[in-house]
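Quick question about two entries, pasted in order.
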Amino acid sequence: MNKKTKEIIDKLYTTSSLSEPEYLDLIEGRTGEAEEYLRSLAVSVRKKHYGNKVFIRGLIEISNYCKNDCLYCGIRRSNRMCDRYRLTKDDILSCADTGYALGFRTFVMQGGEDPYYTDETMCDIIAEIKRRYPECAVTLSLGERSRESYKRLFEAGADRYLLRHETADSNHYSSLHPKELTLENRIKCLHELKEIGFQTGCGFMVGSPYQTKENIAKDLKFIEEFSPEMCGIGPFIPHKDTPFRDFTAGDAELTCYLLSIVRLAVPTVLLPATTALGSILEGGRELGILSGANVVMPNLSPEDTREKYSLYNNKLSTGAESAEKLILLKEKIASIGYEIVTERGDAIRK
């Protein structure tokens, strides 16, 4: 590790802020020694705020219908090979009942942008989950909606909303999405979610097609300035039935390096070790935790739908990624010195 890289890491550790060129220097200065130093500081920061706790979220993938046609996504509208499904209210509540009995205190309802799930439908489901389990948090990841829609979902009882910004560069954004989707609207949605009162999450793919180091530096600066309560960063993994099928997957080690950077830039952030990280690298989820992450999201979806929610090739949904194998997950996390806890795990507000 050269002197300049160490000085930048130390600055980030003490100020939680860098310029965009400094983030770029940090990316370009990545060595094994820099990774280890950055990781040690990230772990010290996460332990300062959250100790050895790792929070679990019960993931319920409610639908693989999507009106959008994003070029990287396996459930894109034009993928005729996708075996479509959507869960009913009773299906979702059954998942929540199972999750609660297993110890989950946050439920994450994630899906494509499916018009079936109107505000009325979603508000009804959210309200019933909160009625049954008032001490639990409800997180939504349902894409771009109107401000009024977000407001109604929040008033129904939803606590958190995940909406990855995907990339903070408008040209790069347009290379990943159809023309009707814009970075401007995505950022607008994120700010509206925060203004309404949601604990809000953004994030991006590492190694997505056409991504440059300058793009990543811009992403990191955006995350620092937006200061989300949650941030999802995982490696790009191609899907066989998309236009990006032949692109190379993202780098797991770089992903972990960036997790450490985000932990220092937003010290109290809730930072998942994503399913994609575990899918692309054996032990990837544990490496994410050791890099500063503090959230894992086992799958609570009905077993017969898990393989159908195929965003990318070889997505994990069994073993320690499944809610039913929570004991196995606890053992894996304990083996690296951390503890799975059954509590809501809200972000620490600044």
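Here is the second entry:
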Amino acid sequence: MSGSKDKKSTTFIRSRWAEWVFVNLPFVFFIVGIGVVYIFNAHSAERAIRKIDSLKKEVNDYRWQAMTLEQELMYQSTQSQLTKNLEEKGLKPLNKLPLKLESDKEK
């Protein structure tokens, strides 16, 4: 007889546990939903951080390219480089002052 009593008490405990789970099922779904939102938020934050890092590297590369071009432009626009480049094309610097033309209207 004691075997049937233990079986009834175990069944009673299981039924109370199952009843408790079904009563609290909306709360369990709420907790699971919050967990899903938390995981999604963590993944999207990591994705955003990776994108920000790649954009920072890209901006840094463009900054270095701009500085290199600026330095090259400054070097090419010095008088000695201009003279050298123009002599290669057949132009020479003036050794005398240019003539000033005056019109009759100015007098």
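Reply: The chain has a mean pLDDT of 86. The chain is about 80% helix and 0% strand. Hope that helps.
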